[in-house]
Amino acid sequence: MELDEYQRGALRTAAARDKQNELLHLVLGLVGESGEIAEKFKKWVRDLDSDEARIDRADIAKELGDVLWYIAVLADYLDLSLDDIATANLAKLASRQGRGVLGGSGDNR
């Protein structure tokens, strides 16, 4: 599946753009779903001794899907294509790798 195809599919279950506070809803939803992934890994560390064999991959996949949905719909709200975002991100990372600056911090390195 292509990313833009996924994005179009995600929009079928999204609220209307003109719904009051929809942008804030999308941003907070993305943060919340990302937090759910972090929470699951926190419990993995706390309860399962960080044993990678005991990661519930199916459960994590569901949460990653929720994050992907919010990213797709938020990008659309901002008139951004997931294909374009992904292409630009890979180009940015390849450039950093070529210049030997993959490590470090900051977007403009």
From TrEMBL:
Residues 25-97 form the NTP pyrophosphohydrolase MazG-like domain. Pfam families: MazG (PF03819). It comes from the Bacteria. CDD domains: NTP-PPase_u4. InterPro entries: dCTP_Pyrophosphatase, MazG-like_dom, MazG-related_GP37. This is NTP pyrophosphohydrolase MazG-like domain-containing protein. It comes from Catellatospora methionotrophica.
